[in-house]
Amino acid sequence: xxxxxxxxxxxxxxxxxxxxxxxxxxxxxxxxxxxxxxxxxxxxxxxxxxxxxxxxxxxxxxxxxxxxxxxxxxxxxxxxxxxxxxxxxxxxxxxxxxxxxxxxxxxxxxxxxxxxxxxxxxxxxxxxxxxxxx
Length: 134
Hints:
The protein has one helix at residues 56-67; strands at residues 9-15, 17-23, 29-36, 41-46, 49-52, 72-75, 79-82, 89-93, 97-102, 107-113, 118-124, 126-131. By secondary structure, the protein is mainly beta.
């Protein structure tokens, strides 16, 4: 879309994952195809820039606490995180900064149409399949 041109129609589809089974007439699965997203990523804001946390232990620990809806968490008294404020996740220790959880979708489709333009964007993260030939 050009700047200032309003879209007349917008359609967006975002799925974390989807799977399709193909079966034969005997109701036996012959193939399975799936689209899946990548694992969540955690970032911290340092000097107005977002930096990805690369410590696998820390990222796994953060994800576990996030999934269990913990409000405050400490890891061996060396890491402290505050999940309690809605929309604002903060790391308090070993350094202070705002945290952000990024979850890219497995399938993203975006379609926009205006009077003069059509915009189509599609993105697939991971496709896997399995054939059951017996």
